[in-house]
Write a structure and sequence with these properties.
Elements (H helix, E strand, L loop, with lengths): L1 E3 L7 H12 L7 E3 L3 H11 L3 E3 L2 H6 L5 E4 L6 H10 L3 E5 L6 H14 L3 E4 L6 H11 L6 E9 L6 E2 L16 H16 L2 E9 L4 E4 L5 E3 L5 E8 L4 E7 L8 E7 L2 E6 L11 E6 L6 E2 L18 H18 L7 H20 L1
Parallel strand pairs: 1-2, 1-4, 2-3, 4-5, 5-6, 7-13, 8-10
Antiparallel strand pairs: 7-14, 9-12, 10-11, 12-13, 14-15, 15-16, 16-17
Helix pairs in contact: 1-8, 4-5, 5-9, 6-7
Length: 356
């Protein structure tokens, strides 16, 4: 393993990828790269990673690296992923894969042409609780699904922004409320319930300015902080999904699935389903009140049991799927071709919102 973006100052790769990989058998984090040799050296010393490179190209071309992990800001995914693909390496990229559909399509087609195995970090679909909900629906727990309702808060895109996250406010960077928290969650929803047959959407910027946390400066909110999608799935089930920026004083994540025989409710502390933690409740038949649906032990990895409230938990389950895919030729984890399809759905939502 080689991780592009594992910084000595911390960040997502240090909080999720590294502890997940070190908790699981079958992975050896042998290399990292950052933006320059000095910061790479500091990161290598901090995390005990033997090979520290000052560029993604050097890491990708290292004969000691089999699988390249791209864990940098979304606008920088394309250049780093292409470096890995051009080196012929298996690659895992964070989501969103590209800034737009054109970048995503090019990366997917390059991987396909070169015959390279790829993975994308849509880890909500491999999260144990989401897998369990998928199986409950498939096994008829709620009967025929009539409708599903979703509301989530995006953490970012609220009234304040960290200076390091200013890039989130520019839609040209591809890291918006739609693509990140909504994108992760709608991917899980469609995995559980099926794809959209028809949809309509609204995207609005209600907060026109945002305060920078460190300086108090007011900056322009360049992207939508309210997204509402209504539609019908291929099964005929009706969907209503609303994401809003920031955090609410009330409900920050609620996903209900209502059927002819029962109901399931999925809740969490914020709209980032891909991070968790997640709680499940349900009721069916003559039971009129929702009760906890404990996660069966078979869905969980003992090596990650102590990380349930950590982002390493869902990322680790995705890595378990990658290990299985590489060793057994399965396709548990989404690849770049799937990422392109999902980007096309988000573009479809944006187009519908533009018409409104």
């Amino acid at each position: 393993m080689g991780i592009i973006g594992l910084s000595a100052s911390g960040g997502w790769a240090a909080a999720s990828h590294l502890p997940a990989l070190r908790a699981l058998d079958g992975f050896d984090v042998r290399a990292l790269s950052t933006s320059n040799p000095d910061s790479a050296r500091r990161a290598g010393e901090r995390y005990g990673v033997p090979l520290a490179f000052g560029s993604a190209k050097e890491l990708a071309e290292s004969p000691d690296v089999d699988l390249v992990v791209v864990s940098v800001k979304a606008p920088d995914h394309y250049a780093n992923v292409m470096a890995a693909l051009n080196a012929g390496k298996t690659v895992l990229s964070e989501w969103p894969l590209g800034k737009n559909a054109a970048e995503t399509k090019e990366m997917a087609e390059t991987a396909q042409t070169k015959g390279i195995r790829t993975f994308v970090g849509l880890q909500a679909r491999t999260a144990p609780h989401v897998q369990y909900v998928r199986d409950l629906i498939a096994d008829g727990y709620v009967g025929d699904v009539l409708s599903t309702t979703l509301v989530g808060s995006g953490l970012a895109y609220g009234d304040t922004v960290d200076q390091s996250a200013l890039y989130l406010l520019d839609p040209a960077n591809g890291a918006t409320l739609l693509t990140i928290p909504f994108g992760h969650t709608i991917d899980a929803l469609t995995m559980v319930l099926g794809e959209f047959a028809d949809l309509d959407a609204t995207a609005v910027t209600r907060r026109t300015t945002v305060r920078v946390a460190q300086t108090g400066e007011e900056v322009a909110m360049g992207t939508a902080d309210q997204i509402a999608v209504q539609g019908v799935l291929e099964s005929g089930a009706v969907v209503s999904a609303h994401y809003r920026g920031g955090l609410s004083r009330g409900t920050n994540f609620l996903w209900e699935i209502n059927g002819t025989q029962g109901d399931i409710q999925i809740t969490g502390p914020n709209g980032h389903l891909q991070v968790g933690p997640i709680a499940l409740r349900g009721a069916r038949g003559d039971n009129s009140e929702l009760a906890e649906l404990p996660l069966p032990a078979s869905y969980e990895l003992p090596a990650l049991a102590d990380a349930r409230t950590s982002p390493a938990y869902t990322v680790g389950h995705a890595y378990s799927g990658i290990r299985e895919d590489l060793n057994q030729g399965t396709h548990r984890v989404a690849d770049f071709t799937h990422a392109h399809r999902r980007q096309q759905l988000l573009d479809r939502i944006e187009d519908a919102a533009r018409r409104n």
